[in-house]
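Homework help board

Subject: predicted structure for assignment chain

Our instructor gave us this sequence and asked us to write out the predicted structure in token form, then describe one feature. I got the tokens but I'm not sure how to describe them. Can anyone check?
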Amino acid sequence: MKQNLTPREITSKLDEDIIGQDEAKKKVAIAMRNRFRRMMLEDDLRDEVIPKNILMIGPTGVGKTEIARRMAKLTGSPFTKVEATKFTEVGYVGRDVESMVRDLVQSSVKLVKDEKMVLVKDDAEDLANERLIALLAPGFKKEKTTTNPFEALMNQQGGEEPEEEVTPEVKDKRRSLRSKLLNGYLEDEEVSIEVQEEQNPMGMMMPGMEESGMQDMFKQFMPKKKHKRTMSVKKAREYLIREEAEKIIDTDNVNDEAINLAETMGIIFIDEMDKIAKGGQNSGDVSREGVQRDILPIVEGSRVQTKYGSIDTEHILFIGAGAFHVSKPSDLIPELQGRFPIRVELDKLTEKDFEKILKEPKRSLIRQYEALLQTEEVSISFTDEAIVQLAKTAHQVNTDTDDIGARRLQTILETLLEELLFEASNMQGAHVEITEQYVNSKLSHIQGDKELSQFIL
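My token output:
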């Protein structure tokens, strides 16, 4: 896990993909570094140092979620994003606030498990290759005879594989196949493997069953059904490597590490905080303030039961976000306000910002479209004047209609390149230069249209 990046390193990495919003980047980078510093403290002081939660204020599409998500990825921290409007007060039908913590633990388990998978990949690959060889040159199956009725029942439910008799001829065949397999000569050969089916106990999902862990408990008692799939050796190896790796990995250790990682490095991003503030327009939602009061103990610190174990939320970093154009942060209940001591206001995007968004990031929208068209052997290039005009158009549309931030560029570029994307498969070897005139010809019909309804996401 990459937990020890300095604030400057974090902001520098974020600058590669997110334009502007320096203050927000700086605050989240400091918050993450403080978590690393806390781990270096003595035990008695470490427990007293709690994260300084952040409240991001700004319109949609300016980078609130992206800053938090990319920072979590950079530092190897478990991350989950939830919408405050999805939760309901206790007593109402809907999702309870503790589910955000369960989502975080699930994310943490995946991170730890993937890391462990990498460590055992070589051993798992050796075991997978042995299984492939056995599938390509199978022995003779002998049904196991038993007089025990319980053993017979387990065999019928797939609990035990039939015994396999390997003759000298089969051993010789496997020996010759092994060298071919390891040298990559059999990658396109077809093989049939058994893949486990994902089962839903009792054929339906009971309310709260998945989150409480009851579903997993029922699965343990249900016979595991498998079905055969025919695929290439290359594809089958991927399935078998994962299956063998899961056998090698100690699940209990993974769960314990995941809980600890979520407690010390976890990030929960709560979006649409402004929608549950009492100053919002949704006056018909009687549970709005109740949701705030339910969120409060989670943010303050409480123990939540998950199917992987109990987790303490006291040292999880919470990042709240919202536009707050109708309500204000002060409309939140005072106790919740106090739990988000760091406030940062993100700037609206200017024409210059749109230009930088199109030009500077390594994986900018322009580079994405260039790569997509290159798959059809069609190359495109944008002149500086064309990029300036695209930025101007995006800013104008945001100003004249709803401001959806950088997402506006997606609708603008898709409209600009729609005809080219449609015809590209018949244009192999062509090169198209996108000029200012090209942009104006494709977008002139929307530049003068104040309605622009088709461009509102």
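Reply (TA_rk): Your tokens look well-formed. For the description, you could write something like this. The two ends are 37 Å apart (CA to CA). That's the kind of observation they're looking for.
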